[in-house]
Structures are given as structure tokens and as C-alpha cells.
Specification:
Length: 159
Amino acid sequence: MQYFKLTRLLLLLSIFTLIGQYSCTSTKENKKVVIGFSQTGINDQWRKSMNKSMQLQADFHPEIELKILDGNDNVKKQIEDITQLINDKVDVLIISPVQSKPITPLVNKALLQDIPVLIVDRKIDGQNYTSYIGGDNYQVGINAANYIAALSSNKEKNT
């Protein structure tokens, strides 16, 4: 549970850092900063909570417009959503990929159009993105195994 709270906090901090950098260099007055978020899907509580938290934070900033698109856990739908956001020329693009490989070319396309891209939860192929926010599942597995091993060795000492 703590991991999910930390991930949401890091996501929000990253978004607002990018917005702050963008808004300081923008020459257009009264232009809203548009953040496009291509969400994997909204079928679980964690993703619903992430969307709600992001929308709440965006609502505190009238200069921000947040567009959240639901990929319905379907990579073809998500590709359409990301393409739409790129064509809309959002200022920042956030993607929580349904699948890594099919999304990677779209991230490259956005970056070529000078759209910063934040990848959330699942990485894409390669390192070509502005920022990644998520866990290291390999390290989480090592930590869990070490914890279980420590519990087992403590049990042996107590018997």
C-alpha cells in the first residue's frame, strides 16, 4: 500500500515539475498547459485512485487541463488514444502502457515533436522517454525473498 502512495506522489511531483518548467518558458499568455494521460484501463481500484488524485491536483491549477483517456486494457485502443493526444499537441504526455513494444514507436513520435513523455508503471522498450515512474519488480522480488528467508531463519532459531 505504501508503494502505491509513493508512486502516486512521485507521479504528481514529476508532472508538476514538468509543468513548472514548461510554463516558465512559454511565451503565450493565458495558454492552458494540456496534460494528456493514456491510462491502461480503469478496471481496478489503484488506477481509479490514480486518476482521481491526478484530477484533484489538476483542479487546483486553473492553468492546467488534464485529459485522461481510458485504454480499456486494449493496446489497439491505447494506440488510438496516444495518437489522438499527439495530434492534439498536448504539452505533456503520460502513458501507462498496456503493452511495451507496440507503444514504444508512439513515445518516440511524441518526443520528436518535443512533447515530454512520462511512462508510468510499465516500462517501454529502450530508454527513450523523459521520465519513468514505477517499481523495480526484480528488486521487489529479491527483497521479498530475503524477507521470507529472514523469517525462516528466525523461526529455526526459536525452535
